[in-house]
Amino acid sequence: MGKTLIIAEKPSVAADIVKALPGKFTKSKTHFEGGDYIVSYAVGHLVSIGFPEEIDPKFQKWTLDNLPILPEEFPLSVLPNTKTQYNALSKLIRRKDVDTIVNGCDAGREGELIFKYILKHAYTRSVAGKSIRRLWLQSMTLNSIQTGLQNLRENEEMQTLEDTALCRSEADWLIGINATRALTCYNSRHGGFRKTPCGRVQTPTLSLLVKREAERRAFVPSDYWELHADFHCEGAVYQGIWIDTDFKKDPDNPHANKKRIWEEKQAVAIAEKCLGKEAAVEETHKDSSQTPPQLYDLTTLQREANSRFGFSAKNTLGLAQALYERHKLITYPRTDSRCLPEDYSESVHNVLKRQQGWQYGEFAAEALSKGYLKKNQKNKRLFNNKKISDHFAIIPTSGLPGTLSEPELKIYQMIVQRFLAILFPAAIFHNTRRVSIVEQETFLTEGKILVEPGWKAVYGSKPGAGDAKTLVALP
């Protein structure tokens, strides 16, 4: 029986995999080697699609005459900055004593592409008979890596993911190469070389920004007025805002709403008519509930981190990646799912038990003592196999943090709070709507008080929170 070669996406991950394997390993410049295993690594992308001139020398010249460039097969080339590591990997892949090659790159589309491009470029007849397997990790804890190694996936299972990765890569190349050359040739038609980059993602994104900026510049400010009134009733004081009860949305004036008055004379006239007059008051009450938000996927984590802390999307991804790889505190962050597998309740229970020893321990303890996990067992917003693609939602692992930087701690706190919150009951509010009619003019007062915090307790909300000023009871 030969050796198994595991190729990770980066050196730090390779080192973690080695810790999860049995036996002693010798470390060299490019890989770790033990009795049964060799663990090496890429350094991100080592191989990519080559340039058009590598297909045919005639494409060296940028001209509209040879567009579009639609190769039957896309040429692969080794990136010059990482050629040394690629050469080391290709030798390991071709070694006669290696009979199994395991893709240990990140468990996602990009990790699949990195590995398959390396394998394809290094492929020879000596590689043809070797078994290809997939190591699929949801988190970087030692237990998770060991479980992954015991449950390697067959290469055939990964075919659809490989096809998706190749499709994305080739689409980027086709649009980037052809559109960039076409636009550059057009813009350079009067002389010179005016390079005009165009990309599958960057150009539509730029278009969104340009359109939004055009709307901003075309916006014409308009003055409007609002009427705010103070109402007094035997010592009780509350405020109301004038509303137009006959208001209907106008497609030609999207900025109009029932609280805005567009003519100063009308605002003054209403104020003078109502000043010092008695009001007839009608009041309605209604309870409402607010369910907890779903777990984070990468996009919602990035959006909320930007809103709360001003972190850029790139910065949030880097922090989440560090929490996943270096600290091993969260599950795989590059996910588009906000649910967990339906058989994951035991793992959630273990994480809850561990979280009792950290900052939000009282809420983890409450979730356990009151059986919130069991009550959520059939909650499809939480456990739903149909809403999971390659990875499930971002949640904490069973590890607890040691030393984290301030930004890392903020992201970790967000993930832990969201994990705990979704297990808690809905928040219950008491809503009040008070209408005060003065001389046939209507003033609206609305307020909301938190009666039962439910999941909002995890975020520090307490019963009675709300806009108390608008909710003064009338005699």
Structural key phrases:
Rossmann fold, Topoisomerase I, domain 3, Topoisomerase I, domain 4, 3 domains, seven-stranded mixed sheet, five-stranded antiparallel sheet
Describe this structure in a few short sentences.
The protein has 3 domains: 3-167, 3-Layer(aba) Sandwich (Rossmann fold); 228-291 and 427-471, Topoisomerase I, domain 3 (Distorted Sandwich), CATH 2.70.20.10; 298-421, Topoisomerase I, domain 4 (Orthogonal Bundle), CATH 1.10.290.
Could you describe the 3D structure shown?
The chain has about 475 residues and is of the alpha+beta class. It has three domains: about 5-165, Rossmann fold (3-Layer(aba) Sandwich); about 230-290 and about 425-470, Distorted Sandwich (Topoisomerase I, domain 3), CATH 2.70.20.10; about 300-420, Topoisomerase I, domain 4, CATH 1.10.290. The chain contains 13 helices and 14 strands. It has helices spanning about 10-20, 85-95, 110-120, 140-150, 160-185, 200-220, 265-275, 300-310, 315-325, 345-355, 360-370, 370-375, 405-420; strands at about 5-10, 25, 30-35, 35-40, 45-50, 75-80, 100-105, 130-135, 155, 230-235, 235-245, 280-290, 425-440, 440-450. Strands 2-3-4-1-7-8-9 form a seven-stranded mixed beta sheet. The protein has a five-stranded antiparallel beta sheet with strand order 10-11-14-13-12, with no helix packed on it. Strands 5-6 form a two-stranded antiparallel sheet. The model has no long low-confidence stretch (mean pLDDT about 95).
